[in-house]
Specification:
The chain has 271 residues and is of the alpha/beta class. The chain is 38% helix and 24% strand. It contains 10 helices and 12 strands. The strands form 2 sheets. The chain has a 6-stranded mixed beta sheet, sandwiched between helices. Strands 9-8-7-10-11-12 form a 6-stranded parallel beta sheet, with helices on both faces. Strand 1, helix 1 and strand 2 form a beta-alpha-beta unit. Helix 1 packs antiparallel against helix 10 and helix 5 packs across helix 9. The longest helix has 16 residues. The chain starts with a strand and ends with a helix. Bound molecules: 2'-monophosphoadenosine-5'-diphosphate. 2'-monophosphoadenosine-5'-diphosphate (ATR) binds next to helix 6.
């Protein structure tokens, strides 16, 4: 019997998750079928309940439903609890379990695929919205020397830092213009590219050879990547993070860890 999963969002037609999970299923021999599910903006819960009632085993959740998914989970993993959002649900018989695999996906992409162990590094996280909140706990767990969170609205950066303070890595919040210089890793978790800006922060944040990662991929990420390359950094888009967060979700559902490298290569070739 094939087990059904889906990515649920609005919009969802652009999602690459079905292609990624189809490759994982083929590679691991797991009997997984993975589809796209467009939920009405006011009908997320009903869409999920119908999908689960039809026998589905779980789903990924994308914009704008990650906070609703958090509320609907009967139980949550620690990392989902910390980020306040759920991107993966498993429909267990005794209730839905919510996880958030975005942070582990980002960290695995940086450490394994980009070969930059985060321990001891200076990390700048740009943005304090849902995307940034979802990954900060996992960045902390990788033990960098310091993480600075900067955001257009400085109070949101401060609130995000305050909610993660107890975890043992020095954290600080700042405005975009006060971002510290010479960071080893700069992560763009804003949607500023949608407004046409190349980078929300000035180039002094980049140490020569720094890794500059945008969580987006495709044309939306390009201005930031071009900006990073023009200032001596190594640009990286969000495609690796996408594949790695999917692998974490696959493991959460199936207990089997796919090899992400051939999947990332295949996906990149189609972009
Ligand atoms: P997401 O779930 O993608 O994180 P979000 O929660 O709306 O979406 O957060 C968007 C992020 O992009 C925020 O950090 C936002 O800054 P504010 O908190 O000050 O709004 C940031 N952002 C959006 N447009 C921006 C722009 N033109 N310049 C700089 N930052 C921007």
């Amino acid at each position: 019997m094939t087990d059904r999963y889906a990515v649920v969002g609005n919009p969802v037609e652009h999602s690459r998750s079905p292609a990624i999970h189809a490759m994982f299923a083929e590679q691991t021999g797991q009997p997984v079928a993975y589809e796209r599910l467009l939920a009405p903006l006011d009908g997320f819960e009903a869409a999920l309940r119908a999908f689960a009632a039809a026998g589905a085993k779980g789903c990924n959740i994308t914009v704008p439903f990650k906070f609703e998914a958090f509320a609907l989970a009967a139980r949550r993993t620690d990392r989902a609890q910390l980020g306040g959002a759920v991107n993966t649900l498993r429909f267990d018989a005794d209730g839905w379990v919510g996880d958030n695999t975005d942070g582990a996906g980002l960290v695995n992409d940086i450490q394994r695929n980009a070969a930059r162990p985060l321990a001891g590094l200076q990390v700048l996280l740009v943005g304090a919205g849902g995307a940034a909140a979802g990954v900060l706990g996992s960045l902390i767990a990788a033990a960098p020397a310091r993480i600075t969170v900067v955001n257009r609205s400085a109070d949101k950066a401060q609130a995000l830092v305050d909610s993660h303070r107890q975890l043992g890595v020095p954290l600080q919040a700042a405005t975009l213009t006060d971002a510290p210089a010479a960071q080893d890793v700069v992560i763009n978790a804003t949607s500023s590219s949608l407004a046409g800006a190349a980078s929300p922060v000035a180039e002094h944040v980049l140490k020569p050879g720094a890794l500059a990662l945008d969580m987006m991929y495709g044309p939306k990420a390009q201005p930031f990547l071009d900006w990073a390359a023009a200032h001596g950094a190594e640009p990286r888009d969000g495609l690796g993070m996408l594949v790695e967060q999917a692998a974490e979700a696959f493991f959460f559902w199936r207990g089997v860890r796919p090899d992400t490298r051939p999947v990332l290569r295949a996906l990149r070739a189609t972009l």
